[in-house]
Amino acid sequence: MKEKNCNETFDRLPRRRKDVLELFLQGKTDAEIEKLLYITQATVRKHIGNICSDFGLSEEFSYDRSSKRPALMALFAKYKPELMQGNSAVTADSTVSSSSVDWGEAPEVEEFYDRTEELATLKQWLLEKQCRLVVVWGMAGIGKTALAVMLADEIQSQFDCFIWRSLQYAPALPDLLADIIQFLSPTPNLELPDSVSDRTSKLMGLLQNHRCLIVLDNVETVLPEGHRDDGEYGDFLRRVGRERHRSCVLLNSREKPGAVTLVERETRRVKSLQLEGLKEAAREIFREEGLTDEADWNELINHYRGNPHILRLVAWHVKELCGGRVSKFLDLGTTLLNDELTTLLSQQFDRLSPLEKQIVAVLMQTNGAVSLERVRDRIQPPSSSELMQALTVLKDRSLVEQVPTGDDVQFSLPPLIRRFASQHCPLTE
């Protein structure tokens, strides 16, 4: 877009849209704009998406809506820099250009429920603490990918380059390294070394010379089953966490990689965040679906542990089958388990070790919570330390819950996991 067209388009913007744009250009976050203009963050994102379309970015740039923000910054840094006063993070020289931004397989996020605290924590780790390696982990559907998209959307302009890669189909590490190196390297068709170690060294050199943000989604797919060793990816993650560089690698995973746990104990530049379920913010899902019986909403939220993806599925069923009445759905006394949820949970259960499956079987066959001693007596594991390690893995994957009971600690299965284990897994063989 030429300067004349940019100025004319800016002058034609509706007042509210222009207010949002001016605050955005000053470096305000969506949460800050929400408070200043008394509108929701969803409305802020909608306005910015419309602004991008107004300035023709949907035609000039092929990546999705969320990745057009740095292009919008670049446009105004070039033609109307006076609007960016006070935004020290973005100037005409430092804005990320379209050639240094690659959103890869990142999804479009249309629904995002309040994660203000988590966003603030991650921004502090990546920007203020300049952490080298960060992992966000939690159960499937809890909102890890959406959180990472919103985070990257807000902070990518403060990095020299940004790249998003999904590991959903478990790419071999040499191939992933080659892909990232070719993107970051200024030399086209760079000839790469054959060994994984040498390719990792090549990437580490690039991360030292440039401040890059790399997001790796679905990391659990490249971790070996049983959670005993992270394989070749473990060596890579340990080097990223330990070696000196200016960049950050952000991981999304249903499981916390063992390599991260190890290096996290050694340095403050490696952090991990377990993403919990929504609480009050989950009620927005039910409002959007027009559900009734608000007094019963918290019971439904707690039953599904605040998992936003699962709650959206449940809300749809309540609306379609129970006329939107939550009390009527609760009276059925059932736990929703459709094909989609079965597939998600099957993927997690398939990765369990034999000992972890035995523990789930014992908990499934017992009503209420079970003590560590009772689990040990029923299973007779190789050692108490292996039993405690297996329980820790199950708890970290949100498959088992720890229940404090006075001076003792007991364990139980969440309702959805109990229903799935009893009907779909041959755990009692």
From TrEMBL:
Signal sequence annotation: none
Pfam families from the UniProt entry: NB-ARC
Domain NB-ARC: residue ranges: 117-219
Domain of life: Bacteria
A GO molecular-function descriptor: ADP binding
InterPro entries in the cross-refs: NB-ARC (IPR002182), P-loop_NTPase (IPR027417), Sig_transdc_resp-reg_C-effctor (IPR016032), Tscrpt_reg_LuxR_C (IPR000792), WH-like_DNA-bd_sf (IPR036388)
Coiled coil regions, renumbered to chain: none
GO BP: any one term: regulation of DNA-templated transcription
PANTHER family the record matches: HTH-TYPE TRANSCRIPTIONAL REGULATOR RV0890C-RELATED (PTHR47691:SF3), REGULATOR-RELATED (PTHR47691)
Entry protein name: LuxR family transcriptional regulator
UniProt organism field: Zarconia navalis LEGE 11467
